[in-house]
Design a protein that fits this description.
30% strand, 8 helices, 284 residues, binds zinc ion, alpha+beta, 5-stranded mixed β-sheet, 10-stranded mixed β-sheet
Length: 284
């Protein structure tokens, strides 16, 4: 199942058209993805039973062509976790040793944005980081690796946009501030449940500028995979329904290049993950 926030309302997206969840269910289900994400099994059962007779509007392809109608699939996550240095080659380009446990920081909620949001450049050192984002659907502490995917509602694409100068303006580095400026956390285009994916742990992940690849990798190259991250985080803190986990970026960021490259006004960056769709963000 793919669930998007279309024109401010939760819609199940299919190739044959979208279904407004609250309207089609006579308000049995809520009108935002935030209030559905803890109850996706019930929603799936209802949709499977009712699907043939429901009115449809825009299809997945039509929405991908017109991303402006989509908001962030989760607008008010209780917590946003992000993981640094979670791909081997990214750690190498950052000249840092591989971590022996996840390196965790937080992105602030006010930086969330939709999949076509325009992102103001805060300086001439703003960088791209395409990431797989896991959305928590069942709360818990001390979740085992084996049980972890049962706590994941689904996946979406994220960009962990980062102002490198601000990040390094203090020591230790201030990740949260530098990665939480206006619209610095676009997510989307929708939440995809893992049953839609052949292998949710091995997806092509990329971002492009004008057709040129900036980053290209596979999520199977993560050092700590999604179940390991869920188990690790929940061993320390309580995970809550709607929480987001930005799972780290692969190699190819601008700060790792020689010479360094940063985003310039007018750039459009397209971020994509196999099976999850794509986002297009304009920088000004
Ligand atoms: Zn990141």
């Amino acid at each position: 199942m793919k669930i998007a926030q279309v024109d401010g309302r939760a819609c199940i997206v299919t190739e044959h058209g979208g279904v407004d969840v609250a309207a089609a269910s006579d308000d049995r289900f809520g009108s935002t993805v935030d209030c559905l994400v803890g109850d996706l099994d019930a929603l799936q059962h209802w949709f499977t039973a009712e699907a043939p007779q429901l009115d449809r509007s825009l299809s997945a392809e039509e929405l991908l062509a017109d991303l402006d109608r989509l908001g962030p699939p989760i607008a008010s996550p209780p917590q946003i976790f992000a993981i640094g240095l979670n791909y081997e080659h990214h750690a190498a380009e950052a000249n840092l040793d591989l971590p022996d446990q996840p390196m965790v920081f937080t992105k602030w909620q006010s930086s969330l944005a939709g999949p076509s949001s325009t992102i103001p450049l805060s300086s001439d050192t703003v960088d791209w980081e395409v990431e797989l984002v896991a959305v928590i659907g069942a709360a818990g502490r001390n979740i085992s690796v084996d049980a972890a995917m049962g706590h994941v509602a689904g996946l979406c694409i994220g960009q962990d946009v980062s102002d490198r100068r601000l990040q390094m303006a203090s020591a230790p580095a201030q990740f949260s501030m530098a990665k939480s400026l206006e619209n610095f956390s676009p997510i989307g285009p929708w939440l995809t449940t893992c049953d839609e994916l052949r292998n949710p742990h091995d997806l092509a992940i990329a971002c492009h500028r004008d057709g040129h690849a900036l980053q290209e990798s596979r999520t199977s190259s993560m050092i700590f995979d999604v179940p390991t991250l869920v188990a690790y985080l929940s061993s320390k803190v309580e995970l809550r329904v709607g929480d987001l986990i930005f799972t780290g970026t692969p190699e190819g960021v601008g700060v790792g290049r020689r010479p360094r490259v940063f985003i310039e006004p007018g750039w459009q960056i397209e971020s994509s993950i196999e099976g999850l769709g794509r986002m297009r963000n304009q920088f000004v």
